[in-house]
Amino acid sequence: MKLTACNGVLDLLNSSKTAKASEEYTFFLSGDLNQMSTQKSFLIRQGFDVGQTNVYPVLKPNDVTKALKLIYENKIEGWWQYSKECISRGICTTVEFTQELKRQYPN
Q1: 73-93 pLDDT, tens digit each
Q2: 8-30 per-position pLDDT tens digit
Q3: Which of 8, 14, 42, 76 could form a disulfide with 71 if both were Cys (CB 3.0 to 4.6 A apart)?
Q4: Residue 20: what pLDDT?
Q5: Distance (Å, rounded) from C-alpha 74 to C-alpha 10?
Q6: Is the distance from CB of 57 to CB of 38 less than 8 angstroms?
Q7: For residues 24 and 3, what is the distance between their CA atoms, to the nearest angstrom?
Q8: What is the pLDDT of residue 50?
Q9: How far apart are CA 71 and CA 81, in angstroms?
Q10: Three-class SS of residue 77?
Q11: 32: which DSSP letter?
Q12: Domain ranges of the chain
């Protein structure tokens, strides 16, 4: 059996035992390891300070809305994990989120 994983996933796994972000990081990104790795890399490229606790990338509270907006608008892998957060933070409406989901995944 041959296992493959992207570098970002390996980075999350390699540092998971020792990674503990400070208490100021309170919002955990969601998804599988590949999705979280992709989101973390994207947000770092956008200038966000992304911490890590175990395998989970984490954000500071003041960065969450802007980060989720960028993930949603750019349809970064795993964006659909944040429906409740996007709607409650005014990034989109329930109708808009559902329309985007159907547009991206028509089946």
Answers
A1: 999 999 999 999 999 999 999
A2: 666 655 655 555 667 888 999 99
A3: 76
A4: 66
A5: 24
A6: no
A7: 36
A8: 96
A9: 10
A10: coil
A11: -
A12: 7-104
| Phi, psi (rounded to 5 degrees) for 53 | -125, 115
Average pLDDT over residues 48-54: 93
**Rounded CA gap, 62 and 10, in Å?**
28
Identity of residue 80: W
H or E element in which residue 72 lies: helix 64-74
Global confidence as pTM: 0.80
Angle between helices 64-74 and 33-45 (to 10 degrees): 110
- 36: pLDDT confidence band, cut at 50, 70 and 90? very high
Q: Compute CA 97 distance to the chain's CA centroid, rounded to the nearest angstrom.
A: 16
Euclidean distance between the first and the last CA atom of the chain, given in angstroms as a whole number: 31
Which tokens go with 106? Answer: 């028509």
**Rg of the chain in Å (alpha carbons):** 14
The predicted model gives 56-68 an average pLDDT of 96
Q: Which residues of 64-102 are buried (b: 16+ CB within 10 A; e: fewer)?
A: bbebbbbbbeeebbbbbbbbebbeeeebbeeeebeebee
At position 3, the amino acid (one-letter code) is: L
Structure tokens at 39: 């989101």
